[in-house]
Amino acid sequence: MEENVILCAASAYEEKYFLSEAFAGMPESIQEELQIMCVLFTADVGGILKLEFDKLGNLLFQTEADEGDLLYDEIGSVLKIKQLQEEKKELLESLELYYKAFFLNQDISALLTQE
To answer: Which of 17, 31, 46, 68 is most buried when burial is the number of CB atoms within 10 A of its CB?
Structure first.
C-alpha cells in the first residue's frame, strides 16, 4: 500500500512546524501561508496537524492527539478544518494542482479544463 506524501505538519506538543524538503521549491509566500495556517491550527485546537497528498493528489487534513490529552479539542478540529477548507479553498486547490503536475506528472492542461 502506498503511503501518503506529507506536505507539512505542525505539533502543539513540540511547538514545531515541518515542511517536507520535496516542497522546498514552492514560492516562499505559499510556504509561509502553510506554516501560519498549521501553527495557528495547533495553537487553537491542540494536537498534531498533517497535510498530506493521497495517491490521487488530493490534499488531506490529518489530525491526531496524544492519548489522554484532555486539552485537545476534537470537535473544534473538525470545525476548524472545514473553516480552513472554505477560507483557503484557492490555496488548497492550487497545491493539489501543483502536486498533480509536478509529482504525479499529470497533464496540467487536462487538469485545468476539468475545473
So the answer is: 46
pLDDT band at 71 (very low <50, low <70, confident <90, very high): confident
Are 25 and 17 in contact by the 8 Å Cβ rule? The answer is no
Distance CA(13)–CA(63), nearest Å, equals 13
pLDDT of 39 strictly over 80: yes
**What pLDDT digit, counting tens, does each position of 47-66 carry?**
999 999 999 999 999 999 99
Positive/negative CA dihedral, 99, 32, 25, 47: negative
% of the chain surpassing 90 pLDDT: 80
Task: Answer whether 72's CB lies under 8 Å from 46's CB.
Answer: yes
Strand 48-53 relative to strand 5-11, pairing: antiparallel
